[in-house]
C-alpha cells in the first residue's frame, strides 16, 4: 500500500483477480462472474478502498466537474445561485468548483485553473473571460444580467430594467421625490442604474445617482450613502443596486442619525437571506437568483449532453418585496418658515397646516396613497413658499375612497384656477374630520361632517373664482359618490400680511355661499 492507502492493485491482489477486472467491477460493467464480483467487493470493504475520482474521470473522458466563476464571496446572491445550480446538476453526479475571480486575481489565472482541472463545463456569473471564447474552451453558460452576451452562448438573467423600475416607482408612489441610487459600473448595476434614471425622468423627480468602479460591497454602500446624504440632505430615499450595498446604506443612515424608514427609506435588490432577516427586514427586489441557477444548470446540462447550440436567452421576471425599511416621507416644515405673525387674528391661523405651506417637504407624484390611506399630491412651488395652494382634506375613518376625493379636489382647482402642469400643489388627507375640526379649525362650534376640505393659499382669489371652484368641487365629488351635505369647505387666504381666515366662504356645496349653521341648529 502506498502511503498507507490501498490501491486498485491491492484490491486485485486481495481478491485474486486482475486489475482490469477490478476496474470492470468499479464501473458496474457486465461480463463479470458473480463469484469474481463478490470477491472484489469483499476486498474493497476489507481494505476500506476508495476509488480515485480523478482517475475514473480520466478513464471515462469526463470529470463531472462544473466550474463556477463569481466575483465576490461576500455577496449572498451567489449563495442562492449555487443552490439552484446544485439542485439541477448534483443528481447527475456533477460537482461544483467555485472560484472568486476577485480574490484569486494576482495569484493565478482562475479560469486556467478550472481548465487544467478539465472541468466539463463552466457557469459564468461575471464578465466572460476572453479565454472561454476560444474553440478549445468547454461549454459555458452565463448566469446573471450582462450587457453584451457573445453569439452562440446561452444566458439566463433577470429583467433588471423592470426590477429597477419596480423599486423606483414604488418609492415615487410613497411620495419620495429626491431619491438617491447606489450602483456599480457595468453589468447588472449599469442596467439598474439606467432604468432608475429613466423612471425618475418620467416622473420629473430629482435623481441622485452614484456609480462605483469595483464590487458592489457593503463598504461601497456605506461610503456612498455617507457622501450622498451629506451632499444632498434633501434625499428621503435610497435605492441600492443590491442588498449588500443597501445594508451599507443602513449603516450610514444610523451614523448620521437618520431614522429608517421615518427619515430615510431604503430599497435593495436580490432578496437575499440577509434582507429577509428580522433585524434588517429590507424592502428589496426579488430577482429569483435560485431560479437563475436552476435555469443555467439546465442549459449547461443540455450542452454537456451533446445538444446543439441554440443561443438560448432566458429572462426571469422580478417582483418587489415590501418590508420594514420603506415608508412615505415625513412632512418636515422649516421652523423659520413656520414662525407666525406677531398678531394673528384667529387661533387657526397658526395651525400646523398653515405653517406647513411654507415649509420644506419632499415632493410626491399625484394620486399616491401611503400606508395610512393618506393621499399625497404635491407641487414644486410649495417648498419655495410660492403662490400655489395647499389643500387639506380630513375625512372620517368610514371613507373608503380617499384617493378619489383627493383627485377630485386636485382636478377642480387645476381646472378653475388654470394652474400649469409644472406648478402642481399638495392635497393631504389626514385624521378623521371630527377630531381635526375640534382641535384645529377654531370655528367656534362643533362639526361632524364626514369630509372637511381646507384650502390654503397665499394669493387672494375673487369671490367669483371661489364660487366657480365650489361648484366644480361639488360636481366632481358627486361623481365619486360624495354627497354635498357630507362636505364642509374652509377657504384660507394665508398671505404674508393677511392671516385672516376665509370661513365666511364655507359651504355645504349646495350652491349657497353662507356659513353653515352650527350643528345644534340643524333640523
From TrEMBL:
Residues 324-351 are annotated as: Disordered. InterPro entries: HTH_LacI, LacI/GalR-like_sensor, Lambda_DNA-bd_dom_sf, Peripla_BP_I, Tauto_MSAD, Tautomerase/MIF_sf. GO terms for molecular function: DNA-binding transcription factor activity; transcription cis-regulatory region binding. The keyword Cell cycle does not apply. Keywords: DNA-binding, Transcription, Transcription regulation. Residues 6-60 form the HTH lacI-type domain. This is LacI family DNA-binding transcriptional regulator.
